[in-house]
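Bench log. Compound arrived from synthesis this morning; before running ITC I wanted a structural hypothesis for how uridine-diphosphate-N-acetylglucosamine sits in the protein. Inputs:
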Amino acid sequence: MILLTGGAGYIGSHVSVALSDAGLDVVVVDNLSNSNKASLERVQTICGRSLVFRHADICNEEAVYEILRAYDVSAVIHLAGFKAVGDSSVRPMAYYENNVVGTMRLVSAMTRASVKTLVFSSSATVYGCPEYLPLDEKHPLKPTNPYGRTKFFIEEMLKDLCNSDPCWRVGILRYFNPVGAHESGLIGEDPVGIPNNLLPFVAQVAVGKRDKVLIFGNDYDTADGTGIRDFIHVVDLACGHLSVLNHLKQPGMLTVNLGTGSGNSVLEVIRTFEAVSGRSVPYEFGERRPGDVAACYANPTFARKALGWKSRRSLAQMCADHWRWQSQNPDGYRGTQPLQYRVSKLKVRAG
Ligand code: UD1
């Protein structure tokens, strides 16, 4: 059994599908603070097999320990965490508590249960402002915001853990910009409030929920002046988790970039989205967003060599799949929740 923390979220629901499709049994642990249990019902529809859901917080070591023991867990994929860059500067301690302390509690529960295989979702944000491109795993780590620093500190902590005990098998995955959705259109990204990231914003403009995209700067030193990022299909990203899990049958530690290796500009994304959706996506140019860099994309060579993994899906497919999810679910999972679930969630919050 694989324990998946944060498994009800955007990336987690796609990893759940990848694991289930590979015939693995999954127990999802999620506190539903930024996710919706309806995603897991849909994962089960997609895969035609059931998974276990346990509503728990990774900061609750006893609860995690009990779950590890109860389900005979052999490995943990740890995705749970806060992820909004701007928010992390407003309430940094909440990020350190949830991300860093949460991981410490999880590792402590795993140690007690003798489960010593862990895949951790890190981020390309640990590199900070690129000193060279494409970014390989040896690039210096200089995160520029509290969110990035939580990922950096956790990576360092896990390295120390592996050095102290050779029984640990740890995979650190540095995600670039995950976008898109499962091709069924049943699961996808469901941001609460105004989306921070580009693709969900573009999709909400295309579906008519917002008027226009504000492009953060058109005076960067790039071909069209807008920022360049390495957008990676979330299904390709999810497959990367399976590859690393297979790799961790050998002991040791592995840190890999999960990106495509090529960058696309904000304008290219908008034009591609318009082409595949048949909708117009109005935009206007605004000021640069503080903390943004001109360009950021991966060198994915190590992932190919070490894991035999590479991304397969094009930007057009990313946009087409994102659009299918957005157009079929204009209000995300909210439109489809069973009433009973809404009531029980309210009770949990009130408690
Ligand atoms: C952001 C986070 C990063 C995180 C990643 C997760 C920041 C500074 N960085 O990366 O730490 O790991 O999300 O996916 O928030 N853009 C617009 N208009 C918008 C939104 C975005 O022009 O409304 C532009 C941005 O300036 C950037 C590109 O689109 O050039 C991508 O932005 P975004 O999706 O927020 O991702 P990152 O900034 O790369």
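What the model suggests: Confidence is low (pLDDT under 50) at residues 337-351. The first helix runs from residue 10 to 21.
ITC booked for Thursday regardless.
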